[in-house]
Design brief:
The complex is a heterodimer of chains A (555) and B (469).
Chain A lengths: L2 H9 L1 H14 L10 H17 L7 H7 L1 H16 L4 H21 L4 H27 L4 H27 L3 E5 L5 E4 L1 H6 L10 H4 L6 H7 L5 E8 L2 E11 L10 E7 L1 H34 L3 E5 L5 E4 L1 H7 L3 H4 L10 H13 L6 E8 L5 E8 L2 E3 L2 E10 L1 H59 L3 H18 L16 H11 L4 H8 L3 H14 L9 H6 L4
Antiparallel strand pairs in A: 1-2, 1-5, 3-4, 4-5, 6-7, 6-11, 8-9, 9-11, 10-11
Chain B lengths: L7 E8 L3 H12 L4 E4 L7 H5 L3 E3 L4 H6 L5 H11 L6 H22 L18 E3 L6 H14 L2 E3 L2 E8 L5 E8 L10 E13 L8 H7 L18 H8 L4 E2 L4 E4 L12 H12 L1 E4 L4 E2 L7 H9 L5 E5 L10 H6 L3 E4 L2 H8 L3 H17 L21 E5 L3 E5 L2 E2 L6 E3 L6 E7 L17 H18 L3
Parallel strand pairs in B: 1-2, 1-8, 2-5, 8-19
Antiparallel strand pairs in B: 3-4, 6-7, 7-8, 9-17, 10-16, 11-12, 11-13, 13-15, 14-15, 18-19
The chains are: A alpha+beta (555), B alpha+beta (469).
Chain lengths: 555, 469
């Protein structure tokens, strides 16, 4: 029936503890400061369990004592310990009273009926009565020898513990300050004394020592207790860096006010750290720079770059490769190389990859496939690379559609040139043949008609007949020239060398005077030659201009 | 009358070469138009090429074979539920109704190959998701590109849309583009005007990677939030449409993907692992507590909201049985996105998960499976779900990333873009795919996007080819 109240009591332990601390602060009697947080909690729990056991209001005192045996033992042991530490029985009983007050205050605030509250409060009284009685009766039996020994033992233990802690306190390299609740230093260890040797330590505000301006509240706000902070303190002109840890003493000993400040010197570590940080920053910057450089080269190069692993899976690619194949980078990376080429290309690539040794470069031409199925020729350069004991194949892909086109053009042109060559050869051959035929023809005609005529001329005595033969010879010779573009005029053959030259000059339109100057002959000589030419060409007495006559003649 | 100088002239211009764009191009070509597809990136396909290739269809052949009862009404119900009722019902209904028809079109006409099993994705009542053989969207994009080539559809890369051009009557008659544009250099390339005699189909996708525009719509999605999208998922298509008076719709509903990996950028290989194995066959725990915190199969919005709450460090764990459903396991292990462990102790110590709570979680999960009901979070428990017991165990660290923009342009069921001033159609302007809004409401269910893009893309292609001016 009182269950909900019990649950509330158990759950409200922290609140009860706070009440208790308040009660102690307001009371005139000095409180027992050596009770630790754990012990206080335990004591309250013991009281609450006692309450639970004493549910029935009808129990008389003796029954109650027997029911609460366990709790009473706990408290008498606790009181014995406290007495050994030098606390009077009155203080201890007072402490029990304040505990009761705290519990009562809490019970008042609990959510339940007033009747129940009253019941519980009554039970609480009975519990504390039992405990108090037990403690007081302990005091009476305390004079026995056994108890005395026990007391001495405890004293010894406490003294030992104190020495140990004193030693730690004095020999630690950390600076330790103990302050009261307002932050005024009440104790400090030797290291702290040496460090803060410039001024008075005891009695000064800890914030001043830590070179923090403002009140204690601000200090605690800046450096919340129970966490480690870094603090810089200037001492004798040098900056020292400390790890500062503030602990509230009330955390473990609820009735003690004040703070414990532990400062450990980490100046060295901080210096090292700064150097390291600086280095890390520098290295990171350099790395970022080279990465950026590499990436910009990797991405902006006009050729596709893929990195394949042993199974020909693409593990890295640049955006040019992605554009070339029409596949987004996200998909391209992680795809198998086979989606980019035909069967032959894949075969060639795997053979190349298997046989390629590190440091070698191998190029192959293969067909690549665009995402929509269009095929294009490509030149692939494969290299090999080891990274973390893994083998990779960086490959560079080059779309050679244009090159292939140009190549095809060149081949076509070459072929055409060759054809032309053959044709020309044929033409030349024909010409050669014709020439030979012509020469043979000429030779045969010379042999068959000219030579016999000449022989006859030589044998002939008669001038007339010789003249006849000569004219026949002339006609035959003229007939030989018949195949040429313009038949050589029979008359022109009669002209002498000089006359022929003069004819050429006349034909070109030069006057007699100009001709005689050019040929370095006298005008008269030229005139004589003219007369002879006209005579030989059969123009004597005819009204034909020599220049006009020669115009269509071949000279 | 203004007279413009046109550099080129086509019947139909499609902007964007993803699912919606190519579907529109193919249909328009088949209906007798000569078509030009513009793509600003170096490669065709955009997000569609890198997505997971998941296709939801209600009432498919595989479902019939597996004995799964499903129909378009059920799919519509799922969509409306995840969409929190923000969906424009007639558009959502169209997607559900045409899902099977569109799926068959990809198989029969395009020749897309799908795996011979269905997947059950978060937020769907039943398993209704096909996945391409390659496990990526390029398994559909590639056959579409081949089709385009064979049909003579010209696809022009590195051409960015600058402006939609209107004539005096308010009809969109052409586009101003930057040809030979080098993404993301804003001023690269040369301006050109291209006329579209019949119309323009806007299929420019979402703006998940457009930081400036994204921040306007949802200031929480800062540069610290990664995206699963490709770099070109930006808002200029949407903005060009607003310029000619289109209606903006639910632009701030931007979806984050819950399955993306913490250990890689973008969509990566981890997303598919979590999507197919991690969530359906594993559990997601918070590494700080070792406890589950959400139904792994709920819709994406609920999951990401839970994952982003109170400094959680989500890790998904799956055993050697569940991992069989993953398609990208080897790649994930190779790139260190997924880690494998011989025992749960090793896994816990690697991720610094408190071991005891984790083991309790696994015990509890096993109990739920025995009872056939997840009383904690309500994860649906199909028959083939097994407790996580068989080593080796696999784990993946997760980080929600911006994935999909539910909002966009307002269209009618004929994919005509509606003007903001009077709600009437803007002549000559059609839109399809992620650039449109209203189909998915507050949250898109996984695998509903491909079907939406293809279905509306085809409608847009057919309708634009019919126009004569």
């Amino acid at each position: 029936m009182l269950q909900e109240l019990e649950i509330q009591l158990e759950e409200g332990l922290t609140e009860i503890l706070a009440f208790w601390v308040q009660e102690n602060q307001t009371s005139v009697r000095p409180s027992i400061t050596t009770v630790s947080h754990d012990v206080a909690c335990n004591a309250f729990l013991q009281m609450v369990t006692g309450l639970k056991k004493l549910k029935e209001p009808s129990h008389n005192q003796e029954v109650a004592v027997s029911v609460l045996a366990k709790e009473i033992v706990f408290f008498s042991e606790l009181s014995a310990d406290l007495r050994a530490e030098g606390y009077s029985v009155v203080s201890i009983v007072h402490c029990i009273k304040t505990m009761r007050l705290a519990l009562e205050r809490f019970i008042k605030r609990c959510i339940t009926t007033d009747k129940k509250k009253f019941q519980v409060a009554e039970a609480l009284h009975r519990v504390t009565d039992c405990i108090e009685t037990a403690i007081l009766s302990d005091q009476e039996t305390d004079d026995t020898q056994e108890a005395h020994n026990k007391k001495q033992n405890t004293c010894l233990k406490i003294a030992q513990a104190q020495t140990t802690y004193k030693n730690i306190f004095e020999s630690t390299s950390n600076l330790v300050l103990v302050t009261d609740e307002s932050g005024i230093v009440i104790e400090s260890n030797p290291v702290a004394k040496i460090f803060f040797s410039g001024g008075k330590i005891k009695g000064s505000f800890c914030g001043r020592l830590l070179q923090v301006t403002g009140s204690l509240g601000k200090l605690l706000e800046l450096y919340p207790p129970d966490t480690i902070h870094e603090i810089t303190i200037q001492s004798a002109g040098a900056m020292r860096v400390f790890n500062l840890q503030i602990r509230c003493l009330s955390k473990s000993y609820p009735l003690v006010k004040g703070l414990l400040l532990i400062l450990s010197d980490i100046t060295c570590a901080v210096d090292h750290r700064q150097v390291l940080e600086q280095r890390v920053v520098e290295r990171t910057r350099e790395l970022a720079k080279s990465e950026k450089l590499l990436d910009s080269i990797f991405q902006s190069i006009g050729k596709g770059i893929l990195v394949l692993d042993r199974e020909l899976e693409i593990i890295q690619a640049n955006s040019m490769a992605s554009e070339m194949y029409g596949i987004p980078l996200e998909v391209l990376i992680g795809s198998h190389y086979q989606v980019l080429t035909d069967e032959q290309g894949l075969q060639a690539m795997s053979t190349t990859c298997e046989t390629l040794r590190e440091g070698k470069v191998h190029s192959l031409e293969c067909t690549s496939i665009y995402v929509d199925g269009r095929e294009f020729p490509s030149l692939v350069t494969v290299t090999s690379m080891h990274l973390d004991e893994q083998e990779f194949r960086p490959i560079i892909v080059w779309d050679i559609t244009r090159q292939k086109g140009l190549e095809a053009d060149i081949i076509e042109q070459k072929q055409r040139a060759e054809e032309m060559n053959v044709t020309l050869k044929n033409v030349l051959k024909t010409i050669e043949n014709e020439k030979r035929e012509f020469e043979e023809n000429l030779a045969s005609r010379i042999r068959s008609s000219l030579l016999p005529t000449i022989t006859r001329i030589r044998q002939e005595q008669d001038d007339d007949s010789r003249a006849g033969y000569l004219s026949v010879l002339q006609e035959q010779m003229i007939s030989l020239t018949a195949g040429f573009t313009a038949a050589i005029d029979g008359d022109l053959l009669k002209l002498s060398k000089t006359e022929l030259r003069i004819c050429r000059f006349i034909k070109s339109g030069m006057t007699g005077k100009e001709i005689c100057e050019t040929m370095n002959l006298s005008f008269e000589t030229i005139q004589t030659h003219r007369k002879n030419i006209r005579k030989k060409l059969g123009l004597r007495g005819k009204d034909i201009n020599l220049h006009v006559f020669l115009a269509d003649k071949v000279l | 009358m203004k007279t413009r100088v046109w550099d080129e002239e086509y019947d139909v211009i499609v902007i964007g070469s993803g699912f919606a764009g190519l579907a529109a191009a193919i249909e328009a070509r088949l209906h007798g138009s000569n078509v030009l597809v513009l793509e600003k990136m170096r490669t065709p396909g955009g997000n569609s090429a890198i997505c997971g290739g998941l296709f939801a269809a209600a009432g498919s052949l595989l479902q019939a074979r597996e004995g799964i009862e499903d129909n378009p009404e059920l799919m519509l119900k799922d969509m409306l539920e995840a969409g929190a009722g923000l969906n424009h019902r007639e558009l959502a209904k169209l997607v559900a109704d045409r899902s099977v028809e569109t799926l068959q079109w990809t198989i029969d006409y395009l020749g897309v190959e799908y795996k011979d099993s269905l997947n059950h994705l978060g937020g769907h009542t039943v398993a209704r998701t096909y996945i391409t053989k390659t496990g990526t969207g390029s398994g559909i994009i590639q056959p579409m590109l081949v089709k385009c080539r064979n049909l003579g559809v010209e696809i022009r890369m590195k051409t960015q849309l600058i402006q939609l051009l209107m004539d005096d009557t308010g009809r969109v008659e052409g586009v101003c583009v930057r040809s030979d544009y080098h993404f993301p250099k804003a001023d690269s390339g040369i301006l050109k005007c291209i006329k579209a005699r019949r119309g323009i189909v806007l299929a420019t996708g979402g703006f998940s990677n457009d930081l400036a525009f994204r921040l306007i719509q949802d200031p929480r999605l800062t540069e610290n939030v990664d995206s699963t999208n490709h770099a070109g998922a930006t808002a200029e298509g949407l903005i060009a449409a607003f310029e000619v008076g289109a209606t903006p719709l639910q632009l701030c509903w931007i979806q984050l993907g819950p399955w993306a990996s913490f250990d890689e950028k973008g969509w990566g290989v981890g997303s598919m692992f979590t999507l197919l194995a991690g969530f359906p066959y594993g559990i997601m725990v918070d590494a700080n507590t070792g406890k589950r915190f959400v139904n792994e199969m709920s819709d994406r919005r609920l999951r990401t909201d839970a994952m982003l709450m109170s400094d959680r460090a989500p890790v998904t764990i799956v055993d050697s049985e569940g991992v069989k459903h993953a398609t990208t396991l080897e790649k994930c292990l190779k790139r260190g996105v997924v880690k494998s462990f011989d025992s749960m102790e090793e896994l816990a110590s690697f991720h610094m998960i408190p071991l005891q709570p984790l083991q309790e979680t696994l015990e509890m999960y096993k109990l739920h499976l025995l009872h056939g009901r997840d009383v904690e979070f309500g994860k649906p428990i199909p028959k083939d779900l097994r407790p996580i017991e068989k080593p080796p165990f696999y784990s993946i660290r997760l980080l929600p990333k911006v994935h999909y923009c539910m909002g966009g342009l307002r269209i009618n069921t004929d994919t005509e873009v509606l003007r903001v001033t009077d709600g009437k159609t803007i002549p000559g302007l059609f839109a399809a795919g992620e650039v449109t809004g209203g189909v998915h409401g507050a949250s898109r269910l996984g695998s509903n996007s491909i079907v939406e893009c293809l279905a509306f893309g085809r409608i847009a292609g057919r309708n634009v080819a019919k126009r004569q001016y």
